Amino acid sequence: MNTAHILTAFDRDLEAAQALVVRMGGLVETALLDAAEALDTRDEEMAQRVRKGDAAIDAMEEEIHTRCAQLLALRGPTAGDLRTVLTVMRIAAALERSGDYAKNLAKRTTVLSQMIQVPGASGSIRRLARTVVQMLTDALDAYIRRDVTLAEDVRRRDRDVDQMYNSIFREFLTHMMEDPRTIGPCMHLHFIAKNIERVGDHATAVAEQVIYLVTGAMPGDDRPKVDSTTAGL
Predict the structure, then answer these.
(1) Which of 18, 35, 36, 94 could tie 129 with a disulfide, CB 3.0–4.6 Å?
(2) Which of 59-63, 135-139, 221-225 is predicted with the least confidence, judged by mean pLDDT?
(3) Is 81's pLDDT higher than 90?
(4) Measured on CA atoms in the order 22, 28, 32, 34, is the torsion positive or negative?
(5) What is the dihedral of CA 42, 43, 44, 50, to 10 degrees?
(6) How many other CB atoms sit within 10 Å of the CB of residue 186?
């Protein structure tokens, strides 16, 4: 049996799966930014493109899952290689869910375009989305470079996203109390903000997978959270 040939085939298949993850991450980042821009500019055509584009993200996640399942079944990876395969599958799942959130944002954009505008709200949402996309970009960079320090930094920045989300939540409450006409759009906007905050959680999960991949263990401390919007509920 040609062991060198088998190892080369495994490496090639694994690299192909990892390349798909990187491409998938780029699609998700674009979808989130485009959905936030569509909300800010009330561009229903752009929102529709984001919704349609989610099918490509889903298909890519399915292809990654299939490739990884074949690697596990046919190649029997061990130790570090096994961790890499598992990490690829988990990152792909986090990206697929993030793509769903982008699609949901685009769906709400279509509804909100028919409602009165809430002053400053879409800009706040867009800033939150940019912050979260940067987290996701850095988490994927950490994965490519196997950079634990960058992954830890992404993990810490989840607190910043939580604080931004809390601030937006309070902003919406103020609008609703001052003008009952904004209750409907603010409810939709809050749903959007919460979805984007959850993408931040998925970016953090990607960073934690990087730590697992490099060190062989998940972070031992609890993920820092400062979401106060559900306190007392």
Answers:
(1) 36
(2) 221-225
(3) no
(4) positive
(5) -120
(6) 22
Q: Which tokens is 145 given?
A: 């470079």
**Cα–Cα dist 152/184, whole Å:** 38
Of 132, 104, 97, 131, the residue nearest 189 (C-alpha): 104
The Cα–Cα gap between 135 and 142 comes to 10
Query: What one-character-per-residue DSSP string does 142-177 give?
Result: HHHHT-HHHHHHHHHHHHHHHHHHHHHHHHHHHHHH
d(Cα 196, Cα 136) in Å, to the nearest integer? 11
| pTM check: above 0.70 | yes
| Residue reference for tokens 């960073």 | 207
**208 token code pair:** 């934690």
Residues 6 or more apart whose Cβ sits within 8 Å of residue 24: 57, 60, 61, 64, 92, 95, 96
Domains and CATH numbers, the chain: 3-215 (1.20.58.220)
Please state, rounded to an integer, the average pLDDT across all residues of the chain: 90
Of the candidates 55, 61, 1, the one whose C-alpha atom is nearest the C-alpha of residue 25 is: 61
